[in-house]
Specification:
Strand order of the largest sheet of chain B: 1-3-4-5-2
CATH architecture of the domain at 7-24 and 60-139 in chain B: Roll
CATH architecture of chain A: Roll
Strand content of chain A: 35-45%
CATH superfamily of chain A: Hotdog Thioesterase
Largest interface: A-B, 37 and 35 residues
CATH superfamily of the domain at 7-24 and 60-139 in chain B: Hotdog Thioesterase
Strand order of the largest sheet of chain A: 1-3-4-5-2
Number of domains of chain A: 1
Distance between the termini of chain A: 6 Å
Number of helices of chain B: 3
Strand content of chain B: 25-35%
Distance between the termini of chain B: 20 Å
Helix content of chain B: 10-25%
Largest sheet of chain A: 5 strands, antiparallel
CATH class of chain A: Alpha Beta
Order of helices and strands of chain A: EHHHHHEEEE
Largest sheet of chain B: 5 strands, antiparallel
Helix content of chain A: 10-25%
Structural class of chain A: alpha+beta
CATH topology of chain A: Thiol Ester Dehydrase, Chain A
Shape of chain A: elongated
Oligomer: heterodimer
CATH class of the domain at 7-24 and 60-139 in chain B: Alpha Beta
Number of strands of chain A: 5
């Protein structure tokens, strides 16, 4: 079960350099053919500086940097018993190729709940605030993970 | 000419253009695993998925389905105007499912100099089973 004593704990920031190819790869993996994600000229035509990261792109630094798995490990959560309950993003500015994004995870809450079938679950909320290389906030991600016990 | 959406053009109750995806293939899970970095074998290895209780084998990454919702949103609201996007994962998506993303405008108001539009969205499969419910907020330009 999740270590409830770690609510409020903040983890060291992890850094991710954003590449144009990774932005296009993410759009292609989703099957999103919007040219702003795939083609720099098309993006500029639509008022962007370059191909912007698509809305769910921040899953890339979260998973490739292992920032979320590291938090789950520290909380002594059994990864095999985790379901993704909710995900929410607040966007403050675009993420572009060449940006160096730094995200620091924080355990915002851990609550125990009981499902309709009587099973106990820990509801773990992790927040990651992402900043760019200029120290500006670019986005905040909030993940609700459900650990079945 | 740039795709544009103005605050004045949006009315409460308006529906977002529907997006249909699928039937989904297992291969897309592999492609998405590589793109996202989420290599949980629950999404790519049928034997593993069955061993942890998924009788039909692999299920899609929840974030892939949220990605479909993001595709639908930013095909309608330019990405640069999207301020908030949140979902609740309500059901598992399997290979073969055909996924439909729908949404509608629930409120609009001017606040702190921004023209905000609030929308809800639902993602369902061909049987009408709900995969995701969610909402998003956009700050749109005004013609004024």
């Amino acid at each position: 079960m999740a270590d409830h004593s770690k609510v409020g704990k903040e983890y060291p920031a992890m850094t991710w350099e954003v590449e144009r190819g990774k932005i296009a790869e993410m759009a292609k993996a989703i099957g999103d053919t919007n040219p702003i994600y795939l083609n720099r000229d098309a993006a500029i035509e639509e008022g962007y500086k370059d191909t912007p990261a698509p809305p769910t792109f921040l899953t890339v630094p979260m998973m490739w940097n292992s920032s979320m798995p590291a938090v789950l490990g520290d909380l002594a959560i059994n990864f095999m018993m985790v379901l993704h309950g909710e995900e929410e993003y607040e966007y403050y500015q675009e993420i572009y190729p060449g940006d160096i994004i730094t995200g620091a995870a924080k355990v915002a809450a851990i609550e125990e709940k009981t499902s309709k079938s009587g099973r106990k679950m820990d509801m773990v909320t992790v927040e990651i605030l992402y900043k760019n290389q200029r120290g500006e906030n670019v986005a905040k991600a909030r993940s609700l993970l459900v650990e079945r016990k | 000419m740039a795709h544009e959406l103005y605050f004045e053009d949006v009315t409460i109750g308006d529906e977002m253009p529907k997006l249909v995806k699928g039937p989904l293939q297992k291969l897309q899970h592999v492609v998405y695993a590589g793109a996202s970095g989420d290599f949980n074998p629950l999404h790519t290895d049928d034997d593993f998925a069955k061993a942890v209780g998924m009788k039909d084998g692999v299920i899609a990454h929840g974030m892939l389905i949220m990605g479909f919702a993001g595709q639908a949103i930013t095909a309608w609201v330019p990405k640069k105007y999207l301020k908030k996007f949140g979902v609740r994962f309500a059901g598992m998506t399997k290979p073969g499912n055909t996924i439909t993303v729908t949404g509608k405008v629930t409120d609009k108001k001017q606040e702190a100099g921004q023209n905000l539009v609030f929308c809800e969205l639902t993602v369902t499969d061909e049987a009408g089973d709900v995969k995701i419910t969610g909402n998003f907020t956009a700050a749109l330009p005004s013609k004024a």
